Amino acid sequence: MRNKLITTLAAGLVLAGGGVAVAQNVIGTDGGPPGAQPGGLTVTQCGQEALNVVRTQNAPAVTSAVAPVVIPGTAFPFAVPDNASRCVKVLLTAETSCTDSNANDYCYLQAEIDGQPMNPDGLGFMAIDSEDSTASAHAYEWVGRVGQGNHLLTITQRVGNNNTILRLDDWTQDITIKG
């Protein structure tokens, strides 16, 4: 009896593992193009903290924009002195939901400096949420290094299908500028 139980449990684990492998293969990616994505490990050296700004927003906002639009309140202008560079880190935590299209869709965010993506750069496919009617907490952190001059940090949002609604609520943006 005991050997039969052990054999049955072992068979169940093998079958469950195979089921997970099949599910992982069928589920797909974040809505981006199929196949291997370019990129690799990026290391950004940061120095001493020079500035830290934390913003919070409690009012909900919604978008159905397919093209990236700046999340209201996330634009942050800053300047880097002549002959200097700065490491910029931004963390965004938020309650999100991605709903209403009746399709398997994704909702995306991307941090940018001067219109250029910060790292990690998901090539336009950094999904913060997927089609689901429930709200839940999510977060991303980005980093980049910029040279002297005036700069503008923004966080953009978009959906994959204009029938989808991205609801962004109760967010915190933590911006750190380091030497």
Please characterize this protein's 3D structure.
- It is a single chain.
- By secondary structure, the chain is mainly beta.
- The chain has one domain: Jelly Rolls.
- It is built from 1 helix and 9 strands.
- Strands 1, 2, 3, 4, 5, 6, 7, 8 and 9 form a 9-stranded antiparallel sheet that branches.
- The termini are far apart.
- The relative contact order is 0.30.
Ordered list of secondary-structure elements with their pairings:
Blueprint: H1 2-27, E1 49-57, E2 61-63, E3 69-70, E4 76-99, E5 106-113, E6 116-117, E7 127-130, E8 132-159, E9 165-178
Antiparallel strand pairs: 1-9, 2-9, 3-8, 4-8, 4-9, 5-6, 5-7, 5-8
Helix content: 10-25%
β-strand number: 9
CATH class: Mainly Beta
Instruction: Please give the largest β-sheet.
Output: 9 strands, antiparallel
Uncertain regions spanning at least 5 consecutive residues: 5-27
| Individual helix count | 1
CATH architecture: Sandwich
What's the structural domain tally?
1
Shape: globular
Query: What's the CATH topology label?
Result: Jelly Rolls
Overall SS class: mainly beta
SSE succession: HEEEEEEEEE
**Average of per-residue pLDDT values:** 81
Amino-to-carboxy terminus distance: 67 Å
| Gyration radius, rounded | 21 Å
How large a portion of the residues is in β-strands, by DSSP E?
over 45%
